[in-house]
Amino acid sequence: MALATYFNQITVDKVKELYTKKNYKLYSTADYNVNIFGIRSAENKANTFNDVVGILYKVKGVWVLKKYEATVDPGLYYRQNPINANGTAIIQPGYYQSVYAVGLHQNKYEALKQVKPIKYWRDNNKDGILDRSGKTYEEIGGTNIHRATAHPGQRSVLVDKWSAGCMVLSGYDDFQEFLGIVKRARDLYGNHFSFALFEESDL
């Protein structure tokens, strides 16, 4: 596994603190009113699942935190072979209101599909190193939240073609759990989900 070095630092209190510090909206009253977030590793050369995607919510008034081995960055293949003329999408840290909905990823399987613009940097020098600076592009870039491997019980090790800018959970079973929680929230509150992206340095 390529767990983020800070994986164990991510607790209910820490996530709440991150939202409060950034003045992001934290859903904290009703059960299954989910807060979906990512925390990006400071490492900018990796092709591994060394980031975290998580979901914080309440059940019967008690906070529940799920956190997953993931990437919030494009894989090496798409850094070197951009599919957009401006370069490969790298999501900028921030809070994005109602930007996702349950839908089909590449018309293949259910995932969280981007439905509103997100702010990106575009990496176009093909050197394999993530460029987290430069011009801001605000658009619907198709950066969904989905899974890597299609096989139950399995987990992908390298990002490569699994992400051209999407946020991807490495494990099939992890993603099924994540999506199940999201769909329960959808059935209660509607098909719209916000997302917060933090940096390792925020911890």
- Segments where pLDDT lies below 50 for 5+ residues? none
Strand order of the largest sheet: 6-5-11-1-2-3-10-9
Apparent shape: globular
- Counting DSSP H or I runs of 4 or more residues, the number of helices is 3
- How much beta, percentage-wise? 25-35%
Helical residue percent band: 10-25%
Q: How many strands?
A: 11
Order of helices and strands: HEEEHEEEEEEEHE
Terminal Cα separation, in Å?
Answer: 22 Å
Q: Can you tell me about this structure?
A:
With 203 residues, the chain is of the alpha+beta class. It is 17% helix and 34% strand. The strands form 2 sheets. An 8-stranded mixed beta sheet has the order 6-5-11-1-2-3-10-9. The protein has a 3-stranded antiparallel beta sheet with strand order 4-7-8, with no helix packed on it. It is globular.
List the helices and strands and how they pair.
Elements: H1 12-22, E1 35-40, E2 51-59, E3 62-71, H2 76-80, E4 88-91, E5 94-105, E6 109-114, E7 118-123, E8 137-139, E9 145-147, E10 167-169, H3 172-189, E11 193-199
Parallel strand pairs: 1-11, 9-10
Antiparallel strand pairs: 1-2, 2-3, 3-10, 4-7, 5-6, 5-11, 7-8
List keywords for this structure.
alpha+beta; eight-stranded mixed β-sheet; three-stranded antiparallel β-sheet; 11 strands; 34% strand; globular
In short:
With 203 residues, the chain is an alpha+beta fold. The chain is built from three helices and eleven strands.
